[in-house]
Amino acid sequence: MLKKTLNKQRGSAFLLGNEAIVRGALEMGVNVVSTYPGTPTSEIGDTFSKIAKEVGIYFEYSTNEKVALEIGIGASLAGFKSLVAFKHFGLNVALDSLLPSIYLEPEAGLVIAISDDPQGWSSIQSEQDSRYHAPLANIPMLEPADPQEAKNFVKEAFLISEKFKIPVLIRTTTRVNHVSALVKLNKIKKPKTNGVFKKDYQKFNTFSPQIVEKHKILLEKMEKIKKYFEESNLNYLENNKLNSPNGIITSGVSFCYLKETLKKLGLKIPILKVGTTYPLPQKLITQFIKNKKFILIIEELGPFLENKIKEIAKEINPKVKIKGKDILPAYGEFNPEIIETTINKIFLANKISKIKTILPKLDILRRFPVLCPGCPHRATFFAVKSQASDVIFAGDIGCYMLGFFPPYQMQDFIYAMGAGLGIIQGIKRATNQKVISFIGDSTFFHAGFPSLINAVYNKSNFLLIVLDNRITAMTGHQPNPGTGLTGMSEETYAIKIENIARACGIKNVKTIDPYKIKEMKKTVKEFLNKDHLSVIVAKRECILVSWREKRKKAEKIVASEINQNICKKCGTCVHKWACPAIKYENKKYQVKKDLCSGCGVCIKICPFGAIKKEAAME
């Protein structure tokens, strides 16, 4: 159904914001798409993965975001329109290659779609505001507010990129990526079939003193882009004919919340909606605020617009009162209730005594996130915890982050992709405590490999456990270099992590099926007492993948059951094993057969042998 919708030439379609970004790229004839999967942008790559061959483009899941950007840069230098996509932290990873790419003019459009995650729905490390990267890099940035704009802005970004020969950033947020709306479609362009890289000594010479001249040219180019943005319909005014001393400046999804609020409250206030986040349309802003007495700035996260607009106001209207982060939070994501409360307070003087919320207040029992029933990571954590006392646990990014929560509590810190493996080496230099570092297979390929080399080179001593579930599970089951499939579902060489470890010179390397609890316990105990670096690869595919395969093949899933006559109610299955398929209800422990994956590991961990296999489930 998705393929049919995205291949539709005209009319309209109900699209997710990420799917609208895909559609915009297709309508511009994109040739090459590269990404590293990361929520909230995962669906961009997932969608291209499904349709790439059919529409005649190249798509790949790269090993990390820096490589993904370099693929896009290379293709654009050879004349292929390229789209690169990743989440906000991915921009940090790619920054090393992004900054010089601004100086090397692409032959074809290069668009980089990134997404911030206010509220940290999928990103636990920080609430990053990626808008500040734009002035740092001197790269144009556009910011759509909804799926229709997401599609349109991608198309405009390609035009800007090719007109000014510069990469362009599209910045979205979670609510733009994951909202669905009716999107007007235009004709899909056929991509080019051949590109050519033209050698050019002067163009690619970035040595001193040429880099100074290129920097000067870049700044001049940004001034031209600023003028171009002044006339762009990506920025527009609403209710500007009203003779009002007040005004609101906003951007992104906040504009949607504002529109909804004003309609609900029956208010009309002049609005400047900014779509070109960098460089800002300074003349348009000047015209908007020069006769105003009060300006409210509504933007998620930092005061990016606010600070710049206050600078402009000092020159042309120093008496205007500007409110922003002094009354709206600089953290978390906005919602209609926050905007409604603010508008009511400022423009209606709290005449509406109570803002009705969408949902009533409820006393909700706190629940920790849990690993899926049958998850191989649960078996690894269970086995390791039984052998590891007074051990420091390094965490990393992946679905195994859930090991941070009770009852496992086996990740003492989580920073960034691959960072656990590096940080633990620093900790090891300061303590004689035993240390274990957990890292997933995709994260290992992304950023763990260099840290492993560093550990070997600098003679660090700890136990590394690679949680290899054969897929990039957390972001939607995308393939990685260890899977044996490319992003276009073509078979490729499956790189074995254990072979990489041995190639680095590590002698103690063992691959274990985590369902084999006894073997895992024995190996953890043995490797923890070694006086040099050891690696365990806990290898078993994600339970959701294996479960789906069984369903496709109509294989029966055999659930477990608890013999109440043998059960001693010790609570191991619930309080230590913590499988969501086992519950304590009506004063007894029971298996919820509709949740049970049939992994059977609970049979091995029960101290009294009270759990066994039941009859096969249909």
Walk me through the structure.
- It is a single chain.
- This protein folds into four domains: 2-230, Rossmann fold (3-Layer(aba) Sandwich); 236-347, Rossmann fold (3-Layer(aba) Sandwich), CATH 3.40.50; 376-547, Thiamin diphosphate (ThDP)-binding fold, Pyr/PP domains (Rossmann fold), CATH 3.40.50; 556-617, Alpha-Beta Plaits (2-Layer Sandwich).
- The protein is built from 21 helices and 23 strands.
- The protein is globular, with a radius of gyration of 27 Å.
- The model has no long low-confidence stretch (mean pLDDT 90).
CATH superfamily of the largest domain: Thiamin diphosphate (ThDP)-binding fold, Pyr/PP domains
What is the CATH domain class of the largest domain? Alpha Beta
State the total count of DSSP E strands.
Answer: 23
Largest sheet: 7 strands, mixed
Rg for CA atoms: 27 Å
Helical percent range? 25-40%
Average pLDDT number: 90
Strand proportion: 15-25%
Q: Note poorly predicted spans.
A: none
How far apart lie the N and C ends? Answer: 28 Å
Shape: globular
Q: What secondary-structure arrangement, pairings included, does this model have?
A:
Blueprint: H1 2-7, E1 12-16, H2 17-27, E2 32-35, H3 42-55, E3 58-61, H4 65-77, E4 82-87, H5 88-101, E5 110-116, H6 133-137, E6 141-142, H7 147-164, E7 168-173, H8 174-177, E8 180-184, H9 210-230, E9 236-238, E10 246-251, H10 253-265, E11 271-274, E12 276-278, H11 282-289, E13 294-298, H12 304-316, E14 321-323, H13 336-347, H14 376-387, E15 391-394, H15 419-430, E16 434-440, H16 441-457, E17 463-468, H17 497-503, E18 508-512, H18 517-528, E19 534-539, H19 543-552, E20 557-562, H20 572-576, E21 582-585, E22 588-591, H21 601-605, E23 611-617
